[in-house]
Amino acid sequence: MTEPKVYTVSELSQGIKYLLETSFREVWVEGELSGLKVSSLGHTYFDLKDANSNISGVLFRGFGANLKFDLQNGLLARVRGNITTYDKQSKYQLMAKEIVPAGIGPLQLAFEQLKKKLQSEGLFDQARKRPIPALPQKIAVVTSPTGAAIRDILSILKRRYANMHIIVAPVKVQGQGSKEEIAQAIKDLNEGFPDIDVMLVGRGGGSMEDLWAFNEEIVARAIAGSRIPVISCVGHETDFTIADFVADMRAPTPSAAAELVVKSKVELAANIAGLERRLLQSLRIYYENLQGKFYRLIKSRPMLNPLVLLERPTRRLDDAVEGLFIAAKDRLRRAGEKLNLQTQKLTALSPLFPLRKGYAIVKDAHGKAVKTAAALSAGDRLSLQFAEGKAEAEVLGAGNAGGAGGSADKKKRKPEEKGGTGPQQETLW
Known about the structure:
Strand order of the largest sheet: 1-2-3-5-4
Shape: elongated
Helix content: 25-40%
Order of helices and strands: HEEEHEEHEHEHEHEHEHHHHEEEE
Structural class: alpha/beta
Number of helices: 11
Number of domains: 3
């Protein structure tokens, strides 16, 4: 009986590794990407799964640099690679060399991803786009110096406006390094030529791969950051690139861009002639209107009889003066009535007012009013103030203030004759 073959752990692991790598040297596996993780060295680790199974995978940095789109969790993808093991952990994994989206090409997926990203940032908004100058004096063209596009552009510009100042920035428009050259040329023109009025960026037709430099993010951001208005002109009429969405204007072809940016001398001359006709027509209509107004003016009544112009102002002046006079008269009347009323009130408050009813004011020798009989003594001299005139008297006997006036006899002096100069006098006793 022969002894069984006994493997060491390392021998078995190496055998499994060899078996898997030789049996699954080149395979395509389709599944959903999940668990994406990028290491510090740039390697991408992921899981590829379907409804029932899961396999780990790795895309090393060298292979990942060729991807045209971004890997995303949930993306249905096809992965080309080989199966290998990591013998220290007895795990097998898919070592990827190529990843493409399932059902859509990698370039189309990259196009849609970048388009969605830039659109969410507002780079496609119409509000941020600048108008293209109607009559540019200096034009820059960013394209290949040997392609058909530059020949078509220069031919059309020369035919439509021969003395146009044109600056050509020669760049690669496809292949390795093309996106960097295009972006750098746009930046250099903005920094070195501030007097450029408009910039054309594009190339002739080709496949999606040929046009791909104009779908790169670096080119899109250079166009969006340009101070100079940009017209994109990439490929044919049916070709759309990310540059078309970001640019201030899209032209379907390079030739169409040249026609859009510069009007021909014939068109300019025709426009000027049209403007001249419209100006002359407007001046003629304006002159005819002024002439009609002039004739109507010289035949008008005021021109035939200038005094008519004074009728209305004179009438208005007379009315104003009359109104002012009436208002002043009425105001004076009301002021006089008010003055009379105040005078009557003041008169009623005067201490002399009761004298008109037969009363008199009695004053002693010092001119002080005598208010009571008790304040008097026999022989006192008094002054009597009547409503009209004054009289003097002498007290013959003191009266009782509380009685009926006392029983003293009275002796009157003969009053002065009417019309005399002295006051009337009376003696009381």
